[in-house]
Each structure stands twice: as C-alpha cells, then as structure tokens.
Amino acid sequence: MAGNSQRRGAIRKEGTKKGPQVGSGGQRRRGLEGRGATPPASARPHHPAGKRAAKVARSAQGRQKKTDETEVVLGRNPVVECLRAGVPATALWVMLGAESDERLTESVQRAADAGIAILEVQKHDLDRMSSNGLHQGIALQVPPYEYAHPDDMLATALADSTPAMLVALDNISDPRNLGAIVRSVAAFGGHGVLIPQRRSASVTAVAWRTSAGAAARLRVARATNLTRTLQSWADAGLQVVGLDAGGDTELDQLDATGPTVVVVGSEGKGLSRLVRENCDAIVSIPMAGPTESLNASVAAGVVLAEIARQRRY
User: Fold this and answer.
1) Interior CA angle at 247 toward 270 and 202, to 5°?
2) Which residues are CB-contacts of 36 (< 8 A; sequence separation ≥ 6)?
C-alpha cells in the first residue's frame, strides 16, 4: 500500500477488531429488534402506579416482620402445595418477568379462584423477604392461625353425642408431626388438638400442608400451661392417657370408650415429668420387631385407630 501504509496501526491485523462475521447476522441486530408490548403501569418501577404497587408489597412485608406468627412461604413447590391444601393465605407475590411454568400458572389460578390478592413486584422486593434469595419468583403470605381456647374446645367435645376424644402434644417441635397428628385426629373422629403456647410447634404453613387441609376442619387450641389444662380436663371427667415407649400399660389393655385425652410426647424427649405425673395411665405400643419406638405422629395414629375401633364395637 502506497503512502503511509507502513505506519503502525495503518493496517488492521486480522482478529484485532470486531467486524461482521459469517453467520453472525450483522452488528447491532439486537438494538434494532422490537422490545415487545409496553408493560402495564403497575409493572413500571418509575411510574406512579408502579411505585404504589411496590409500596403495598413493602408494607405487607413490614407487617410480616412485626409478628413471628405471620409467615411468608417461598418457592414454587411450597406455594402451590399450600394453595392446594387450602391454606388461608392473604397475598400472593409474583416477580415481574418471572419465567412461567405449570406451578406458577396453577398458583396464580388458585389464588385468583380463592380471592387472594395477587401482586406483581420487582425482584428486589422478593429478595428482601428471603434470606438467601431462593424464592423462584413467587411468595405467599400466610396470616396467623386463629387458635381456639382450651375451655371452648373441651365444651364442644363434651357436647357431642360421641365421647370426647382429644389429643394434647408435649415436646412436639416439628410442625410436620403436628400436621400429621391433626390429620389423624380428624380421620378418626377426634374433637381437637391441644398444644403448649411455648416451646412447641405451631400451625405454620408446613403444618397446614402436612395436615392436607384437616387444619381447616379441626380445632387446635393453645394452652398457657399444659399441665394445668390437663388437670382441669381431668376434673371435667376426661381420662388422661400418656403415650410413651416406656409405658406400664400396653395399648391392648387400654379402655378408651369413655371421654379421653391422649398426650403425645416427642420421640426423643418423651413426656415431661409434670405431664407424666398427671396422667391416669402411660400407654406403650407393643412392638413385634426390633424397632424401639415410632415417630410421634405414627404412634398417635396407631393409638387413635385403636380408640376408634373400641368405640365402633
């Protein structure tokens, strides 16, 4: 090349600068493509409607932080399972631009059918609700469960035509066990479940899911002092039966045809000392194999099935 061709940089070396390549489709193609339909006003973060929607989401999150009873369920599988179980949710948050799938579509449809508020929020709003950001673009707010009073639950059980059958839980900390026991009590004709107010599993979204909706049909009461409540129930004529692997009475010997409350302890700690002292009998389930004990919810189901059998004949 004549002239200044020997100057450094006059001739571009091959591969040193971007240019049209074979099959690339040319440059700036993405910039020429359309951006799709204009999103709704509530989906635009700088629009007044979008700011109002974000404010609603933040205020709902603030209400969630004021109490440890309100729960936010995160993730597509947990959310859709809660909605299938009939958990009484108050709000469903869906991230703007979230990739849709069957779970997300079903969640939105079920929430709409149940009259649950559906809010489209930005990703950072959902990030603030979760500690690790694993929300998968969806969240469900579950309000505090409305517990019954122990005296009211007892009065309802005694007023029924069938003998009262209640279950009290001692040292049960796993909400899945609580949900499974609630389901068993409902299945075998029980009247309610009593839990301590402190150091106990509560009716959370996990318990709702495990109960398969039985928590909506069966009353759950909270006792400020479990021992005193059991004493008052014994004074009202109920037989207090403790369930423990080291019990002195086998299940085959139990007569539970009359009003009965079954007290279930955890698999590890069992019954506390004061609760055990206030039981009329400590019942154990005879084992045919080498297994020493059963899971608390499984053991409760076995005992409740036996009580229901006795009352049928």
Assistant:
1) 30
2) none
Model's pTM, two decimal places? 0.67
20 φ/ψ angles, rounded to the nearest 5 degrees: -60, 130
- Segments of the chain assigned to CATH 3.30.1330.30: 71-142
> What tokens does 10 get?
């006059």
Strands (E), the chain: 71-74, 91-95, 117-121, 138-142, 165-170, 192-196, 219-223, 239-243, 249-250, 260-265, 281-284
Q: Which runs of E-coded beta strand occur in 156-259?
A: 165-170, 192-196, 219-223, 239-243, 249-250
Who's near 216: CB < 8 A, 6+ residues apart?
A: 86, 88
Find, among 262, 147, 244, 243, the residue nearest to 202 by Cα: 147
Q: How far apart are CA 81 and CA 257, in angstroms?
A: 37
The whole-angstrom distance between residue 46's C-alpha and the CA centroid of its chain comes to 35
The backbone region for 288, taken as left when phi is positive above 0, alpha when psi lies in -120 to 50, beta otherwise, is alpha
Distance in angstroms (rounded) separating the CA atoms of residues 309 and 313: 7
Q: Token digits for 53? A: 């929607």
CATH architecture of 71-142: 2-Layer Sandwich (3.30)
- Edge to edge, what strands does the sheet with 249-250 contain? 219-223, 192-196, 165-170, 260-265, 239-243, 281-284, 249-250
Strands 91-95 and 138-142: antiparallel
DSSP-derived secondary structure letter, 214: G
| Superfamily for the 150-311 domain | SPOUT methyltransferase, trefoil knot domain (3.40.1280.10)
Residue 240's nearest CA partner among 167, 151, 302 is 167
Q: What would the pLDDT profile of 33-78 be if each residue is shown by its tens digit?
A: 666 677 777 777 788 877 777 777 666 555 444 344 678 888 888 8
Question: Which residues neighbour 33 within 8 Å (Cβ) at sequence distance 6 or greater?
Answer: none
**In whole numbers, what is the pLDDT of the chain averaged over residues?**
82
